Amino acid sequence: MNSEKEIANSKILSNSIVLKVLGKNVSFSICSIALRKQWNRFGNFHMTSLGLNWILCSFKTSEAMEEVLSGGPWYIGDHIVGLDKWSPSFSPSSLRVLSAPVWVRLPFLMLNCWDEVNIARITSRIGTPMFLDGNSLNWGKKEYACICVRVNLEYKLPSGVWVDGLGGRFFQKVEYEKLSSFYFHCARIGHLEANCPECVFKYAIHNVPVNSIHQNNPPHNTQENYGP
After folding, report:
1. In terms of pLDDT, which residue wins out, 196 or 158?
2. Domains within the chain, CATH numbers bracketed
């Protein structure tokens, strides 16, 4: 490869992000219309379809790009948009670089943990805390705390975390808002339920004919002679 050309191309893409709508195949035209409505305040940007439902968004300035990355959560309909800054290691066949800010609820959080420091510490177990819902510290309602957390979409999302508090160790349940493609049997997002790897594997195992198992694994003949 021509390294000089690669470096030049990388500079052109330095203010670009890659994104994907998770859990549903949304057409490029619908994505373009929806995102331009949400991001028009960040100035002009160019969108390119990369295949496999990936989109490249190129901004004029790094400041505009960073505002999109640090903002959100971003949705198209009820489906969250996973995004990250483009890098030379980006591959359309992988979610390795992809992350997304999501609203996380902590239902019935212990009252002695109800402050921005401890809420951030608890949610740091599942991602990077970004900011609290303005009503979370309002003593008028204490059903759940709500905080925006950037999560890595490559890893499984936990349904809760263990916390060591003054009253002892307890399990804090975690709820993710608007993650319609989050399945608790695999705890991953980013694919349709019909394409869930664990569902496909379990279906294949349960539907293997018994006869085919015996055919592929004939009984061992203990009387077989060895040697010349």
Report:
1. 158
2. 3-85 (3.30.70.330), 99-202 (3.30.70)
